[in-house]
Amino acid sequence: MPQARVETVRPQTIHLAGEFVESNLGSAVEPDGSVTVRAVGQQYSFTPQCMVVPTDTPVVFRATSPDVIHGFLIQKTNVNTMLVPGYVSEIPARFSKPGEYLMPCQEYCGVGHEGMWAKVKVVDKPEFVAMVSANRRVTCVE
Question: Beta 35-42 vs 59-64: how paired, if at all?
Fold first, then answer.
């Protein structure tokens, strides 16, 4: 389905300034206690490669692409959208229990498409709060 609200970005410069610069990617707690996860899908990877979110908390994924259309699918959830260059995709989610979810690109994006994967790591809320208190933006370190 089309996004309810259309937001645009300049795909040529998302890595230089604004919401989707690398230092602004990952999970962040909003003033109302919800979590916003910012990500970029580009040939042939997602940044960040692993996203951390807490249980029992409203989460909003905001993502875009600088190059071609990519799929943003979190397996075993209802999170499924497309990342279209020049547009911001936003999708809400909520996770009830800890675990790891695979996140493949499900839209063919070129010869390296089959290797384009990321994951979402869901942790207990107290663990997430401790992670956020140590860093402003949270991603997992492999």
Answer: parallel
- Short-list 42, 106, 45, CA closest to 74: 106
The answer to whether the bond into 48 is cis (omega within 30° of 0) is yes
Q: 138 exposed, middle or buried (CB, 10 Å; 0-12, 13-18, 19+)? A: buried
Widest distance between CA atoms in the chain: 42
Distance CA 59, CA 90 (A): 10
pTM, to two decimals: 0.91
Q: Could you read off the pLDDT of 78-88 as tens digits, one per residue?
A: 999 999 999 99
| Strand 89-93 with 50-54, pairing | unpaired
Residue 2: pLDDT band by 50, 70, 90 thresholds? Answer: low
